[in-house]
Amino acid sequence: MSSEEETRRLLGIREDLEARIGRLQVELDDLRTALAEIDRYIARQGFRQPTPVRVERPQPEEDQLDSVSVRSKDGTVLGRISVEEDEIYFTPREGMSFTSSIPPFQSFLLDRVFDNMRATDEGRVTEGELTPEEVLSYEVSTEGERITGISVRNYGGERRLREIQSSLRWTFDKMYEKLRQG
Predict the structure, then answer these.
(1) Which domain holds residue 9?
(2) Contact 160/117 with Cβ under 8 angstroms?
(3) What is the pLDDT of residues 61-87, one digit of tens each?
(4) What whole-number percentage of the chain has pLDDT above 90?
(5) Do the beta carbons of residue 166 and residue 142 sit within 8 Å?
(6) Which of 7, 14, 42, 169 lies at a 20 to 30 A Cα distance from 89?
(7) Number of domains, the chain
């Protein structure tokens, strides 16, 4: 095997490992979210969380217990997602200059994900399944073109929450790749 073939093979292995690390990081974030959700449910039921047997856990970033980091495939924190009642908030990490003109923000996240969900909800209003106040809506906050936050109201349940979180991760990871490439 030539050194060029060996280098290509090793680059392929490296890319696969990076992708796996990214998937595992997403899974870890989801597991932490699930644990926090279970803890909140238990607390609402009037039980206290048992004192753990001296298990060291990393502290959540920015002291936001109800939020989850959004990471790139290489593990870079791109922002945070937090969920409150019927609203999802995404805040890009300080110093990241994500703009609304970087693909696939408009074409995928806004047009294919959010607008399709809104259209589905509007169809359900016509069928009498939802009220107009229950239709998904979103707002992108910007300073100039730089995205400072995204809020999604009336996201509509756990399945959609996971879909939105996954779409945010994928979109901002792709945007991050484009920023790194210059």
Answers:
(1) 3-181
(2) yes
(3) 444 446 899 999 888 999 999 999 889
(4) 52
(5) no
(6) 42
(7) 1
